[in-house]
Fold this protein.
Amino acid sequence: MRELTGLDLLATAVLMLDRHGKVSYANPSAEDMLEVSAKVLRGQRLEDIFSNSGELEAICGEIRRNEITEKRQELTLERTSRAPLHVHCIASAIEHPDHAILIELRENVQQLRLDREERLFDQSQANRELIRNLAHEIKNPLGGIRGAAQLLEMELPERDLKEFREYTQVIIRESERLQVLVDRLLTPHRRLPVMEDVNIHEICERVRSLIMAEFPEGLSIRRDYDLSIPEFSGDKEQLIQAVLNVTKNAAIALTERIMKGDAEIILKTRVARQITIAKMRFRLALTLHIIDNGPGIPPDMMERIFYPLVSGHAGGSGLGLTLAQTYIQQHRGVIECESWQGHTEFLIRIPIW
């Protein structure tokens, strides 16, 4: 294997397949990317490594049949209990007695993040328009329903009042509940941020104390702070509410683990330099990671978690993450999410300079 020494030094992941489609070589970068040792990888088929290997196997099949000698393609490769890999894949035929196909995988992190941020921004714009239209459409008839129920109650004969008041009160109470919901939908668009110097760790500590008061047993909240992060201009109350909404969602998702006593949330702060957020370049930004060890977010919900009225748990209003995203975007920032079994991570990015 002396001729493969150069591949060992490559920063990109390289896999080689033999003529039977089994891995015959994996370089150290492939071990790092796949989180599996070369010894374990050798002898495995692509379907053993990736749960959705069909597209990659089809490319290799074309190469084996001599239909093509090389193909480049963007792929999302899924692995059990790990985050999916978004890669630029180059598969090519090679002439070697022990190897038939070389596969090079380059993780497309930067482009993936930019695409995701653009989708989130467009989605948030659509959310805001939907919320405004929905709230205004509901608000006027809602007042009429409540008023009609109150008038009906006043007009009821004394003999029927006791019997029917229960029903009119249900209409009035539910109308008032929906009125509160509509007001909450409209509030973030009415109120402009009140900017002052804020410290992200004071915000985190406030949120931590609120969550620990609500979940005093079975849940630990671990801090991993970069204390060098400077103060920045922000609306303290909006930021507390945004971080609280995300962290409380995490705590609710941990209900089963809280009962077992091994639930954990991590609040981690870091600095990012020369970063692009919503197509704007910033010299410095803070990143707040809110990580939990819960069951993960179902894949079919991942694209919709920031939509209004979408909730992953019974009794939720479906507004917490929508409002959090709105508040963070009012600070020129963004919230992103990655999730798989045993790990959900919300990443809040806010520019400082």
